[in-house]
Design goal:
The complex is a heterodimer of chains A (161) and B (798). With 161 residues, chain A is an alpha+beta fold. Helices cover 36% and strands 16% of the residues of chain A. Chain A has five helices and five strands. A seven-stranded mixed sheet of chain B has the order 3-6-1-13-10-11-12, sandwiched between helices. A six-stranded mixed sheet of chain B has the order 4-8-16-15-14-9. The chains are: A alpha+beta (161), B alpha+beta (798). At the A-B interface, helix 2, helix 3, helix 4 and helix 5 of A face helix 1 and helix 16 of B.
Chain lengths: 161, 798
């Protein structure tokens, strides 16, 4: 049995018929073909598949595709606008917030949610909010710095407006 | 045409050139690959720790819709065992061996028995991943479940179930290093001796990207392409072609594209990539397999798993007279690719540490158990050695009631240049061990901490500091040396530098980056040496189709071995360029010097040709030296003359919650000496990550088998506790710089130092915090709240 789904990902509309058991992360990677969203575990611990659902960070492995019907998503491929990196992406680059790059898309989208909640976060807030995203390379030091960098630059941009 | 620059990039923290693709979701990992006609593999794995196979019934699974084929080991005729690449056998004259290595078979799909939970026995190939997984559940295993042994210290006990007919008593080898008689004599003279059981628990690497492979056989050409999560694609190709499948190497291309971390676990040749390659040749269709995280826990080679009894003999004024170490190393159910080297040559040879010790003896037994195979994990043998030494030194300080820093300082090998011969075979390259510790103490402000600790204790708070003054061996390794020790391969590295007609440069390196940032570091080196903008340099790695050969990346060898190979090729390019420039400038080649992107006549500033003009001339050789070949491309193989030995001093401050046993890391200071540094930002990043993994071992991580059932109870990220952001502090890192004389770059290696140093620093800190309560040792890590709470309770209710 297959069910129809329709959703928006990075501003583009997708319609497919999918098995009810198909996880959203597999839909995004295998059906839509956006492979920037990664799979690092099978128990929803690692956060590599974090994306934005209607503006909120979710782990794409925790939803069936059919539950996402009608929703609006942003994946890592949708973060840069017109070739300009989002300040969070820029922060990860500036502060060496990544090494192998595998956890990075999930980290960047989790950071987006953190900065929505706490535009001027403390180190402790960043660390606490990142608890659901695992990185094996950086020891988190430079990820925290990257998010701090992004916070400063997003504040700066907001102040200019 | 290429431009020139006098910007000096060696030593600069420039941003990474690989990052734009990773931060925009455009990295290309193996599992991202989709090919026309692709099939999907699912492996049928043993649910039991030990079982004798009678029959594997695949009939019902074969009828499942979408299934293309099912294979068991019986079908894979003509396929050989996965090889062990490090052969410790006495008949080869390998030093230290006292019982020959039992080379046991490891078939890609086992036909006789399953020897650990997760051992693959069949593979389902289907049109979709779901169909393959569904069908795998329909395979019936008709077999006899056997008794199993998983515990390191019980594997060789009388009556333990025998895992391989070829390894009676489950002993794989026995090995020793040092001088037993001299060590015995030292202990007789000692004023104080300490003896501790020190367990280095089993770990799982947990690279964030699970292993994966895609195999594509093209019938028309007979060519097989294997995309695989590998730290060393040429090694994968060689082992798979020559040893397992018996297929011609020149018809096989192995590509390791973007790889999401390795930490050792992606060095080895595994069953899955061999089976997928074999299946693709058989079915003439592409096959993809991606490990689930649970499969990763069951099948990625594990690390560590030593049980050690260590003894230190001291004079009454604190001189280290003797060290005696007896270790049992759990190798798991099979011999993984480099398994025998890790608890022997990468372990026993580091037990001299940074100390002058009167005598050393170390004995190691390698044992088989019904567990996942154990091999190199970040540090590989060196963290185990450092942990034993730094814990027993700390125990010695407690026994002498001496400050742990004072004890270390009394015994440091003084600053030296040239080689320092140890008692355990290796000779250190260069070192100033007291300087690193002095710098650490200045940054850390040791005196102030002890005052703070004293004040905290008065308030009932349990603060502690732990030190670790470590050494490690990297830049592996001289081929002649490792060959004599049993290695089946040389450990050189290759680099081809291709200068294009316009003067831009492509480097083909045998090193492989899976997070280390080679595309930046190596490009810095090239731009610095040639005096051209870094934008004109491209680094290619991870493809046997374009790279001459390569031994890959592990053992902190890329900068020192891979980098030196690049430097050698650059020097050859300059030599040839000098001849071309001399011809163009009507001068003698010996009068041409290369500086800031120009070949110029020495002492005649205006008489010069830029690098790009020489490159163009090499490809358009109309006005060209007689007898010189056109083109500008050079290949080099660099084989190091010695290991390099980074060292340093780390300090960790913890607070222990008396009521819950929870350990909180408050501060972490690291002073490392990795020789010259090409990109400090990248080196710092690797130190950070290494520290996190070392702290993880000390406090949270550990693979646990249930002894009765042989099940891996830490088989998902729910049970295996990886370090998280909210558990770690910012790290304070600094360096001393003692260049190595071994290679012309002066670079030692920086990928593993943090992991090696951090674990004992943390455990020493916890013990230091608990000493007032009477806790003086922990036999086993991780120091979970339960373990710490129990230790406090036992000590305080005695």
């Amino acid at each position: 049995m297959k069910l129809p789904v329709k959703m928006t990902i990075n501003g583009q509309t997708y319609s497919h018929e999918v098995e009810p058991r198909l996880l959203l992360v597999h839909y995004i990677r295998e059906v839509v073909g956006l492979t920037g969203t990664h799979i690092g575990c099978d128990t929803s611990q690692c956060g590599a598949c974090t994306i934005l659902m209607n503006g909120q960070a979710v782990k794409a492995c925790t939803l069936f595709t059919v539950q996402a019907d009608g929703a609006e998503f942003t994946t890592i491929e949708g973060m840069a606008k017109d070739g300009d990196l989002h300040p969070i992406q820029q922060g990860f680059w500036e502060k060496h917030g990544l090494q192998c790059g595998f956890c990075t898309p999930g980290m960047i989208l989790a950071a987006y949610q953190i900065l929505e909640r706490y535009p001027n976060p403390t180190e402790e807030q960043i660390r606490h909010q990142l608890e659901g995203n695992l990185c094996r390379c950086t020891g988190y030091h430079n990820i925290v710095k990257a998010i701090q960098w992004a916070a400063e630059h997003m504040q700066g941009a907001a102040a200019k407006k | 045409m290429a431009t020139v620059t006098d910007e000096r990039l060696f030593g600069k923290s420039i941003k990474r050139r690989e990052d734009p693709r990773f931060i925009t979701g455009q990295g290309r990992y193996v599992d991202d690959l989709k090919l026309p006609g692709m099939t999907y593999a699912a492996f049928v794995r043993s649910p039991n720790a030990h079982a004798r196979i009678r029959r594997i019934d695949t009939a019902e699974a074969a009828r499942h819709p979408g299934v293309v084929a099912i294979f068991t080991g019986q079908d894979m005729t003509g396929v050989n065992s996965l090889p062990c690449g490090w052969d410790l056998r006495k008949e080869k004259g390998v030093p230290g061996v006292i019982q020959d290595l039992a080379i046991v078979p490891h078939m890609p799909l086992s036909t006789d028995a399953a020897r650990h939970v997760g051992d693959p026995v069949a593979v389902i190939i289907a049109d979709s991943q779901d169909a393959a997984l569904d069908a795998a559940e329909k395979v019936r295993l008709d077999w006899e479940v056997l008794a199993a042994v998983t515990a390191t210290d019980k594997a060789a006990a009388p009556g333990a179930p025998v895992i391989h007919a070829g390894a009676p008593g489950n002993v794989a080898f026995q090995w020793e290093i040092g001088d037993a008689a001299a060590t015995d004599a030292a202990f007789e003279q000692a004023a104080v001796t300490v003896k501790k059981r020190i367990v280095n628990q089993r770990l799982v690497a947990n690279a964030m990207e699970p292993r994966a492979c895609v195999a594509r056989y093209e019938d028309a050409t007979g060519e097989l392409t294997l995309w695989v999560t590998s730290q060393n694609p040429h090694v994968h190709r060689l082992l798979m072609c020559a040893f397992v499948l018996g297929i011609p190497e020149h018809k096989v291309r192995v590509i390791a594209p973007d790889v999401g971390g390795g930490f050792g676990s992606k060095i080895f040749l595994y069953s899955e990539e061999v089976v997928c390659s074999w299946v693709s040749r058989r079915l003439k269709r592409p096959v993809r397999w991606t490990s689930t995280r649970h499969e990763a826990y069951l099948t990625d080679a594990h690390g560590r798993d030593h049980v050690t009894d260590a003894e230190l003999a001291l004079s009454k004024d604190g001189k280290m007279l003797g060290l005696r170490v007896r270790t049992t190393a759990n190798l798991g159910a099979y011999l993984s690719t480099f398994a025998p080297a890790v608890p022997t040559f990468l372990y026993g040879t580091l037990l001299n540490g940074v100390y002058e010790i009167g005598a050393i003896h170390c004995h190691v037994s390698g044992v088989f158990t019904n567990t996942t195979a154990v091999d190199a994990y970040r540090g590989a043998g060196r963290p185990e050695a450092c942990y034993v030494l730094e814990r027993i030194v700390e125990a010695g300080a407690l026994a002498l009631r001496m400050d742990p820093i004072e004890l270390r300082k009394k015994n440091f090998i003084p600053k030296f240049s040239g080689a320092h011969q140890t008692l355990v075979a290796v000779a250190y390259d260069s070192g100033d061990y007291p300087a690193a510790t002095d710098k650490l103490l200045r940054i850390f402000d040791y005196k102030a901490f002890r005052a703070e600790q004293e004040a905290a204790r008065k308030q009932g708070r349990l603060l502690g500091v732990g030190f670790s003054t470590y050494i490690e061996a990297c830049s592996i390794a001289p081929s002649k040396v490792v060959g004599a020790l049993g290695a089946g391969a040389g450990l050189y590295e290759s680099a081809k530098v291709r200068v294009h007609p316009t003067g831009t440069v492509t480097v083909f390196t045998g090193s492989h980056s899976h997070g280390q940032g080679h595309e930046t570091t190596f490009a810095q080196l090239v731009a610095h040496e040639l005096g051209i903008p870094i934008e004109q340099v491209e680094i290619v790695h991870g493809d046997t189709g374009s790279i001459a050969f390569g031994m890959g990346t592990y053992g902190s060898r890329s900068g020192s071995v891979g980098g030196t190979a690049i430097l050698m090729s650059l020097n050859k390019i300059k030599d040839k360029g000098r001849q071309i420039a001399a011809h163009l400038l009507e001068a003698s080649p010996k009068d041409i010097e290369y500086s800031k992107g120009q070949f110029q006549v020495r002492g005649v500033p205006g008489k010069a040709v830029p690098f790009g003009a020489v490159a163009l001339t090499a490809y358009v050789p109309h006005n060209y030296p007689e007898g010189l070949e056109p083109g500008l491309e050079e290949t080099s193989f660099y084989d190091p003359s010695n290991f390099c030995f980074p060292f340093g001093a780390h300090a960790c401050v913890v607070e222990v919650d008396r009521e819950t046993g929870l350990v909180k890391v408050l501060r972490y200071v690291a002073v490392d000496d990795v020789g010259n540094v090409i990109n400090p930002m990248i080196v710092d990043g690797m130190v950070h990550g290494g520290i996190a993994q070392g702290v993880g071992q000390a406090l949270w991580e550990g693979a646990v088998y249930d002894e009765r059932s042989g099940q891996l109870v830490t088989g998902t990220m729910t049970e295996y506790a990886l370090p998280k952001a909210d558990q770690l502090p910012m790290y304070e890192t600094d360096r001393t710089v003692t260049p190595t004389p071994v290679n012309p770059l002066g670079v030692k290696g920086a990928g593993e130092t943090g992991t090696i140093a951090a674990t004992p620093a943390v455990v020493n800190a916890v013990v230091d915090a608990l000493v007032p309560l009477g806790v003086d040792h922990f036999e086993t890590m991780p120091l979970t709240p339960e373990r710490v709470w129990n230790a406090i309770r036992r000590a305080t209710t005695r």
